What does this fold into?
Amino acid sequence: MSWWPFVATHWAWLFFLLVPLIIFYFLKLKRPRLEIPSLALWRSVLNDQRVNSPFQRFKRNILLLLQILLLVCLVVAAMQPFFPSGADRARYLPVMIDTSASMAAVDADGKSRLDEAKEEVRRLIDNLLPDQRLCLISVASSARQMTDFTDNQRVLRDALDQLRVSQVSSRLEDALRMTQALARTFPIETAVLYTDGNVPPEIDFELPFQLNYQKLSPAGRNIGITALNARRAAERWDVFVRIEGTKSREGVEDPPFSASVVLLSNGAELGNELISLVPGQSQRIVFPVETEGMRRLEVQLRPQGFDSLESDNVAWLDLPAGRPLAVYCPTELDTYRRALAGQKDVLLYPSDEGESKAASYDLVISDRKGDIDLDAEAFLFVGVVPDDLAKLVRIEESVARLVDWQRNTPLLQHVLLTEMQIAEKPVSAEGIRDRDYEELGYEILVQGGSGPLILRKDAAGRILHYILFHTDRSTLPYRVGFPILVSNAVQIAQQQAGLLEIVGRQTGVLPPQHFQPDKEYVVQAPDGAVSHVRSSVDGTLSGVAAPTIGRYSIREGSTELASIGVSLLTVGETGLATVDQLQFRELKVGAAAAMLKSDRPLWPWFAGVGFVLLLVEWWYFQKRPGGLLVR
It folds into this structure.
């Protein structure tokens, strides 16, 4: 920073205008030639000549002094003087403003953290110097550049007023990468971040510039809903609601939170629980709900007393209508069909006569590679090597040796594979390692001595399991773990179909929906905003932004196809936890001890004084001289 308190010193040449101004006054007096009746007036003439000598004309000439002062004020104002704050002055300054959900939290005076951030940024805008440029960037789940680098205060203020809280978690890394991209075009040395401190403490980013971490004052205490899910239990759903509250400040012992938790379905109250929660703790509440078709549930948290954040006091959950699981399994796989017949709420296709079919299935268990084209979300292939692995692994007619398996994976939970005999041996090609399978999206669940035995892959919303050896050529169907493995596959399919457990949706992006291919649909947000989104060639509607809590309606014309409720459900945002230090790859950045100071421009004061002098000079020039006029 330059400590010279002028930013436009090239306008100092205007001071030379004082020279023609003074010369003008030297040459201004022109005396008329008159005849006088008496010589007694000569004394007055001589005195007048002395007064009008070059160095005497400044005396008693108030008009000249006023004009000199006016010119000096205008020249100084043109030089843009400022009062230095003592902080480094950056010419190009990116200002990142956190707009995540916690920035809506209010203090005891009812002021939100975003309002406080706007006040600080507005002060920077008001004190902007002519050679400075600001760029405003909002930070939420993604970064958004609100303005280019500009010194237009009206544009900056308008962009600042447009900032609104997005009810999502903060992702600071995106804003830093955007600033890094701007640094390739502009000489950025320092960037400023205004946040309440509720950001990830560790950021995988290497700072190419200095970061001024401006941590706002904390909000009041808060209680909110951080988790909502339902699990099927016999003929009912058990709805689980988790409530958490902020921790007490250091050295302060806050009283417990008191609130009521209300469960609603289509406006009707299904349950009501009173809770008392110790600050910093959590509590789980269970509501039993009968399975009577599809239900749209709403959970309301009603705190008693002050609560700083409202967006986490309501959550939504959609329960599907109960139905049996549709499973396709060829009649040739007799061992699997017998295991499936013992499962409850399973509708098996095809029938024993091999005639019945369905348009879609929840689970496909098959030993035929072509069944991948069936409409289903969960697959278990037996003795099938997928096409993309044909060059990586081959099957040999020899005994395979089992080395290890993932005991906690959903398919193999409670399944004991020790001493299992396998008559087919998957062998990896020469030079192929485990990472080669992982690069193609496969996870090795069971490892053999010469290659993988069981693989898992998640692709486009589908869960694919591949048992590379045929189980009929092993002792697996004769083991106690076989029906458990089939039961695990059924539970995976139930989970995928939303028949076993339903989890509340979080704000950010709507879950993918499946409609007609390549068709435009209307999405209406809870605040009434409408957007038009086109489905993909396979009918998937994905990537729809959901930054606001509430219900999103997907329509085709006037017909509602889906209604999806999204909630905040974030422990970090509800807890209002803050960090005093940000850990980057190679350094740490601590929060500033005080709010950012800015240089204060003084040219408006000089311009104002010059205007006042102009009025005084005009008044003095126009006023009538005192005394009598003698002719």
In short: The chain is about 20% helix and 30% strand.
